[in-house]
């Protein structure tokens, strides 16, 4: 049975709007696809271990990746490591560049009471996970130029050889994301048939 792994963004959670939209849409339209969206911390090594353990439980069945913001960074890491298809929504590129602003300050999850504190060692961990795109056919990049958090041009450049949809306006949350869910499933199904 196929599984869709949604990787949420920095300080987000499975309660994020797009994760909830995706879970609901799958339940109605593709109940045969299992949905997973684990609660991840901002600690890179811990996140890698958690995602690795989950993927190990899901394979060898088809696994589809979907990642938003920092989740797009982690979806890329997984896609390259396991040769999996991934839809990236306003993904973070080179997050190590903006992480210094979050060091040694109290961080709180947007949806839970969880709190965190990052240090310089966490930047080294994220750099170690920053992989190049070796399998461009595995990706579909969705970005909106009005993203107020991340410069969409960085993603366009990194994923230049991949399928891309660039929408004018919008924001970091990617307005109207649910419009793309049917096409995401088509993309995933095509990728499985291709391998």
Structure description:
The protein is an alpha/beta fold and 195 residues long. 36% of the residues lie in helices and 17% in strands. It is built from 6 helices and 8 strands, in the order βαβαβαβββαβαβα. Strands 2-1-3-4-7-8 form a 6-stranded parallel sheet, with helices on both faces. Strands 5-6 form a two-stranded antiparallel sheet. Helix 1 (17-29) links the parallel strand 1 and strand 2 (34-36). The two termini are 16 Å apart. 34% of the residues are buried.
Structural class: alpha/beta
Low-confidence stretches: none
Biggest sheet, open or closed, and with what strands and sense?
A: 6 strands, parallel
**What is the assembly state of the chains in this entry?**
single chain
Mean pLDDT equals: 93
Count the beta strands.
8
**From the alpha-carbon coordinates, what is the Rg to the nearest angstrom?**
16 Å
The main sheet orders its strands as 2-1-3-4-7-8
Total helix count? 6
How much helical structure, as a percent, in the residues? Answer: 25-40%
Broad shape: globular
Strand content: 15-25%
The run of helices and strands is: EHEHEHEEEHEHEH
CA-CA gap between termini: 16 Å
């Amino acid at each position: 049975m196929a599984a869709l792994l949604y990787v949420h963004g920095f300080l987000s959670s499975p309660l994020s709007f797009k994760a909830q939209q995706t879970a609901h849409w799958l339940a109605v339209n593709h109940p045969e696809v299992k949905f997973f969206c684990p609660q991840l911390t901002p600690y890179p090594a811990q996140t890698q271990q958690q995602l690795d353990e989950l993927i190990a439980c899901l394979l060898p069945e088809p696994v589809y990746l979907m990642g938003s913001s920092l989740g797009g960074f982690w979806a890329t890491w997984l896609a390259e490591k396991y040769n999996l298809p991934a839809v990236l929504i306003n993904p973070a590129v080179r997050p190590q560049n903006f992480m210094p602003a979050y060091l040694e300050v109290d961080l709180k999850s947007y949806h839970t009471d969880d709190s965190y504190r990052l240090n310089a060692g966490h930047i080294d961990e994220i750099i170690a996970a920053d992989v190049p795109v070796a399998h461009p056919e595995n990706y579909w990049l969705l970005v909106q130029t009005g993203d107020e958090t991340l410069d969409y041009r960085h993603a366009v450049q990194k994923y230049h050889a991949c399928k891309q949809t660039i929408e004018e306006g919008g924001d970091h949350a990617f307005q109207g994301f649910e419009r793309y869910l049917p096409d995401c499933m088509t993309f995933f199904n095509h990728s499985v048939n291709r391998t």
